């Protein structure tokens, strides 16, 4: 699978690049320090998955996800950031992100996140999954909002515990 990285921190970007190129099932197709010419870059490298920083020069990562999903709906995006703010998490998900991982996530979990979003799943670091679950639990229980089946609740519980889908 082809992976593109958007990260302004050079050392962290190089670490991500290393993790990707040393993985047998992944190809680094692009690595960028900002989101300028985003549409042209995505078109040129044709990634399956984009690892997107939230605080990045140019369009912020949340705006970039929205643009990617508007123009390239099959490209999956996994946010990677230091921010655990509820507003950034939910804005990213609403914009179309399929995953949200923290920058202190171990390399094997980063690869797991990339694989899972590439396969059409979702991946959250456990602390982020807990915030998402808490938000759902605080919402009023009305049919207009959302009704999870028993199985969906079970899967969400396991995600919160850090297991893959």
**Count, helices:** 7
> Describe the biggest sheet?
6 strands, parallel
Lateral strand order in the biggest sheet: 2-1-3-4-5-6
Please trace the helix and strand order, writing H or E for each element. Answer: EHEHEHEHEHEHH
Distance between the first and last residues' Cα = 19 Å
Mean of all residue-level pLDDT scores? 88
Structure description:
Strands 2-1-3-4-5-6 form a six-stranded parallel sheet, with helices on both faces. It is built from seven helices and six strands; from the N terminus they run βαβαβαβαβαβαα. 47% of the residues lie in helices and 17% in strands. The chain has helices at 10-21, 38-45, 61-71, 86-95, 107-118, 126-138, 150-160, and strands at residues 2-6, 27-32, 49-53, 76-81, 99-102, 123-124. It is of the alpha/beta class.
Short synopsis of the structure:
With 165 residues, the chain is an alpha/beta fold. It has helices spanning 10-21, 38-45, 61-71, 86-95, 107-118, 126-138, 150-160, and strands at 2-6, 27-32, 49-53, 76-81, 99-102, 123-124.
What distinguishing features does this structure have?
165 residues, alpha/beta, 6-stranded parallel sheet
Helix-strand layout with pairing:
Layout: E1 2-6, H1 10-21, E2 27-32, H2 38-45, E3 49-53, H3 61-71, E4 76-81, H4 86-95, E5 99-102, H5 107-118, E6 123-124, H6 126-138, H7 150-160
Parallel strand pairs: 1-2, 1-3, 3-4, 4-5, 5-6
